[in-house]
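Record type: monomer structure entry
Structure origin: computed from sequence
Chain ID: A
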Amino acid sequence: MATEAHSKNVALMTFLLLCLASPVVMGSRERKISAKLLQGYPDDFKLDPFIRVGKKLYHFGQSKVSWYKANVICRSMGGDLASFDSAEEIKELSDHLKSKFPRDRWWWLSGSDLHSEGDFLWYRTGERIQYADWTRGQPDNAGGKENCVHLWYREPKYEMNDWVCKLDAFYICQANKPTTVVVSVY
């Protein structure tokens, strides 16, 4: 599934490759151009209102909204509802939530099976959820209406549960990784 950000990255890289393919004449001499694509976040990277938790940047929404509205809010901030791929990532997120917020809050994530019952995807990436930390007995699609994933506190940590998408909960946005291109002319 191609995203808008991915399309922009491809267009940028195509432009840079075209620039690299032909020499640039500046003044009376020919110059060379090199470009390097940097991945990830530098340790001191700041992207307000996102904060670093582990290796990712998150924003913890302080209003309760539906899963649909949470998606729109996160997108308007340059991110998406959060996803995770490992026990380490969910532990870091759970530890942060326990230390900073009341434990009675439920938090929307980007997971959903809206497209096909029981086949949960991270809507952030379009990929099937490979690593999940479901609460025992979940997902259960209670009442045939639970299609969106949230985190809730179940002693001693936050775990995943499926819930009704149109109901209100807090939300966790994840910043999209910035693309940094270093261009040198010499």
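Annotation 1: The longest strand covers residues 56-65.
Annotation 2: The mean pLDDT is 86.
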